[in-house]
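Memo to structure team: turn this sequence into structure tokens by end of day. - J.P.
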Amino acid sequence: MNGPKAELYAHDLSAAIWRKSSASAGEGNCVEVTDLPGGIAVRDSKNTRLEPLRFTAEEWNAFRSGTVSGEL
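Reply from structure team:
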């Protein structure tokens, strides 16, 4: 892996500040996100030991747009 994606995965998340969606109803079935330079990391709030997924800003924007428009 190289380029922007490699940079995202090289970023140390040990001090990351994770947040849940404001739409979370508190059931514990959520994802958490943290901002990264040039992207975002996403993890399972129920199993925070799993490796978070990392998305470039372009990938995350495409995902959000697809979700809002009903494509996904």
